[in-house]
């Protein structure tokens, strides 16, 4: 599975630090999205303030699906470490790991809901969307921002990168 991570923040320095720390944990980043305005919901505004943006990274490393629970716990700790490093009194970054399969994008979450699948240690799998040949198929529960064309184009590009990685691995 191809490891990805979403970053939400309002501060460029926080984005850069989160990227550095994520690369230390998971290795080389092989794709970065542009910054997207995170204005589809005000869910994080109370905790993190206004003018939030989101960015996605994908990592060269391929993971076993079973690792995503541990990775979610690691990114939760990393959020707190970055907050402390910046001496912030409140949350300043949200890190959302997940992974791509050839057929889907799955995000890890600590929030249970009827359509989410329990994994390990309080982490759930949220099936975000499905991939067709060259398209994204959203679901009733797909987060509103993931329905945006720019997000979908980015993830189609990451999927192409992942499929190319899989071909290279089979050739070796």
Q: What's the CATH topology label?
A: Alpha-Beta Plaits
Record field, number of beta strands: 9
What is the number of domains? Answer: 1
Helix content: 25-40%
Supply the number of helical segments.
4
**H-E string:** EHEEHEHEEEEEH
Q: Report the major sheet.
A: 9 strands, antiparallel
Shape-level CATH architecture: 2-Layer Sandwich
β-strand amount: 25-35%
Cα-atom radius of gyration: 16 Å
What is the average per-residue confidence, as pLDDT, rounded to a whole number? Answer: 93
Outline the low-pLDDT stretches: none
CATH H level, superfamily name:
ACT domain
Shape: globular
State the end-to-end distance: 18 Å
- Quickly give the structural class: alpha+beta
State the CATH class.
Alpha Beta
Topology (elements, then pairings):
Layout: E1 2-9, H1 12-26, E2 29-32, E3 36-37, H2 45-48, E4 53-62, H3 68-85, E5 94-100, E6 104-109, E7 117-118, E8 124-131, E9 136-138, H4 149-171
Antiparallel strand pairs: 1-4, 1-5, 2-4, 3-4, 5-6, 6-8, 7-8, 8-9
What can you tell me about this protein's structure?
- With 172 residues, the protein is of the alpha+beta class.
- It has a single domain, classed as Alpha-Beta Plaits.
- Helices cover 35% and strands 29% of the residues.
- The protein has helices at 12-26, 45-48, 68-85, 149-171, and strands at residues 2-9, 29-32, 36-37, 53-62, 94-100, 104-109, 117-118, 124-131, 136-138.
- The two termini are 18 Å apart.
- The model has no long low-confidence stretch (mean pLDDT 93).
